[in-house]
Design a protein that fits this description.
The chain has 344 residues and is of the alpha/beta class. The protein has a single domain, classed as TIM Barrel (Alpha-Beta Barrel), CATH 3.20.20.210. The protein is 47% helix and 11% strand. It contains 17 helices and nine strands. The strands form two sheets. It has a seven-stranded parallel beta sheet. Strands 2-3 form a two-stranded antiparallel sheet. Helix 15 links the parallel strand 7 and strand 8. It starts with 6 loop residues before the first helix and ends in a 6-residue tail after the last helix. It binds coproporphyrinogen III (CP3). The site of coproporphyrinogen III has 21 residues, from strand 3. Coproporphyrinogen III binds next to strand 3.
Length: 344
């Protein structure tokens, strides 16, 4: 497909560009009135995720409304545990809930793994195909998955947690079991992401939302090798690794064969650059709460952030946009970036 706006892909490939591209993590979702209106007519979140025409519709909403430089396919990281055999519910106002979790060896043995699991996610591949047809090359389409460690957290705990101490307990008490489970998640994620690329995902982002609760040593042992395998399995598209809170792992992240490293708002770009080296592209990292400020201040903060990163930068927030963010704040952010021009 010939893209009319390929700024994101040119930047991710390390090319010289005229300005940084901009999109927002969680741009498809509750910040948009059109999302809330559609969502209110449905039985729940999963109906939206599992109905390709509707998933495509909400994927495109932020491109129409916000004029961002990329679309991200509407789905969730939790489709992977579900495909492996652990179904999830999305409980209104509470978040994900898994009736069944992983506690022992025999439960790990019973999981569906790799292509057999990935093949159950046909609705995601259909949504990608339908989205690209409707986008008609306006912007690139991003595909994503959760990182093995973050998926492991949900499969062990069965819901969100402040500490994920049950998941961490397995790393300390049963490291061999932990590696077996991480291996199976990785194999499945690779099969899934290859299908996503085959069906039109042009860049892949891997979300390690719970990276920040591990030590540097644990991240090196239980996360980095699996992220390495995922990145190596996707030679045909740029990969963005977003490990939230993992300032302590920046040097290890810098050695991954990925093009882009996502940074949260706690991480200073110059500090990250010193640890990661000169070649990677960075993505981030405005505090999502900055978007509650007046439009003029948002624009100034965006420009200041762009200057502090220098080149090799994809503009985003440091984590997903919060659902109660004023739409005018989001638009002020996007427009400020789009009005920016790097000086020669
Ligand atoms: O716009 C986009 O970014 C694409 C869609 C997307 C969703 N979830 C839709 C969603 C993406 C990329 C995700 C990733 C995701 N899902 C992550 C990693 C990113 C991060 O935020 O750290 C995680 C940890 C999840 C798991 C998850 N999904 C939780 C914990 C929750 C409940 C909290 C919440 O935000 O409501 C979800 C639900 C969810 N996923 C919603 C959306 C739009 C809200 C559901 C609704 O409409 O009611």
């Amino acid at each position: 497909m010939k893209l009319k706006n390929d700024l994101l892909l040119r930047t991710a490939r390390g090319e010289e560009v005229e300005r940084p591209p901009v999109w927002l993590m969680r741009q498809a979702g509750r910040i948009l009135p059109q999302y809330r209106a559609l969502r209110a007519k449905l039985s729940g979140f999963k109906e939206l995720v599992e109905t390709p025409d509707l998933a495509a519709e909400v994927t495109i909403q932020p491109v129409d409304e916000l004029d961002v430089d990329a679309a991200i396919i509407f789905s969730d990281i939790l489709v992977i545990p579900e495909a492996m055999g652990l179904t999830y519910e999305m409980v209104e106002k509470k978040g994900p809930w898994f009736p069944q979790t992983i506690t022992n060896q025999s439960e790990i043995d019973q999981l569906v793994v790799g292509e057999a699991a990935a093949e159950r996610l046909g609705y995601v591949y259909d949504a990608l195909r339908i989205t690209n047809r409707a986008l008609d090359g306006r912007v690139p389409l991003i595909g994503f998955a959760g990182a093995p460690w973050t998926i492991f957290c949900y499969m062990i705990e069965g819901q969100g947690s402040k500490t994920f101490s049950k998941a961490k307990k397995m790393l300390y008490a049963h490291p061999k079991l932990a590696h077996q489970l991480l291996d199976k998640i990785t194999e499945t994620t690779i099969a899934y992401l290859k299908q996503k690329v085959a069906h039109g995902a042009m860049l892949i982002q891997v979300f390690d939302s719970w990276a920040g609760i591990l030590s540097a040593e644990q991240y090196r042992t239980f996360a980095i090798p699996y992220l390495q395998r995922i990145a190596e399995a996707l030679p045909d598209v740029p990969v963005t690794q977003f490990s939230k809170g993992a300032w302590f792992a920046l040097a290890d992240l810098g050695s991954l064969p990925v093009q882009t490293i996502g940074l949260d708002w706690n991480t200073d770009p110059a500090y990250a650059r010193a640890l990661v080296g000169p070649t990677k592209v960075f993505q981030g990292n405005l505090d999502p709460c900055q978007l509650y400020a007046p439009a003029e201040e948002i624009a100034q903060a965006a420009q200041q952030m762009i200057r502090s990163f220098g080149r090799k930068h994809i503009v985003n927030l440091g984590h997903g946009v919060y659902p109660d963010t004023p739409l005018d704040g989001v638009k002020a952010f996007v427009q400020a970036v789009k009005a920016y021009a790097y000086s020669a």
